[in-house]
Amino acid sequence: MCWWKKRKVKTRTALTPGSYVSLPYPEEKPDHTKNKGNTTADDAKKIFFEWMTTYLVPSEKTKWWEKVKITLDESTVAATDSKHKHMWISPVWLNPGVIAHEMAHISYWQLSPEKKRRFEASYQATTEPLVLLVKKERTYAETSMVETHAEIYRFLGKYMPESFWEFYPFLF
Ligand SMILES: [Zn+2]
Q1: How far is the CA of 9 from the centre of ligand 1 (A)?
Q2: In angstroms, what is the span from residue 116 Cα to ligand 1's centroid?
Q3: In order of start, what are the domains of the chain with their CATH numbers?
Q4: How are strands ordered across the β-sheet holding 78-81?
Q5: Distance CA 146, CA 49 (A)
Q6: Structure pTM?
Q7: Would you say 156 and 100 are in contact if contact means Cβ atoms under 8 Å apart?
Q8: pLDDT for 5-58, tens place per residue?
Q9: pLDDT band at 2, cuts 50/70/90?
């Protein structure tokens, strides 16, 4: 076998579903050139739609998600009031992945206490390779179940195992 054939085989192996060696939505780098002077509400809207597209948020849910107010705020990385659907995000961290994480908090807020318990049980018992990869690589996911829930969505997005979709209202 010549070298390039070998290489091709290797690449294809790495991309076979279920055999991921890295998280499908890697973390974006912060952009320290951004601030409130050069970033507008329109930029935030643009990134909001980039999140909807890259994470394949169902288009019939667009109107529901558009009700989330996004405020640019340099005093934080990102924060969300899930009850009132209000997000504050730093221009430096304005990217689809951070928006995905914060939107997952709003989705989690919609779960009943019983569903939250079932989510926790599913997470603790999971053998899904991608969920285990989040657990292994994202220690922040271990800080609370709310953060676990958000990190799974933020790093797996549309590749999240189907058995978890029911815990992500308005996102699948
Ligand atoms: Zn969070």
Answers
A1: 38
A2: 16
A3: 41-167 (3.30.2010)
A4: 69-72, 86-89, 78-81
A5: 24
A6: 0.87
A7: no
A8: 333 333 333 344 455 578 999 999 999 999 999 999 999 999 999 999 999 999
A9: very low
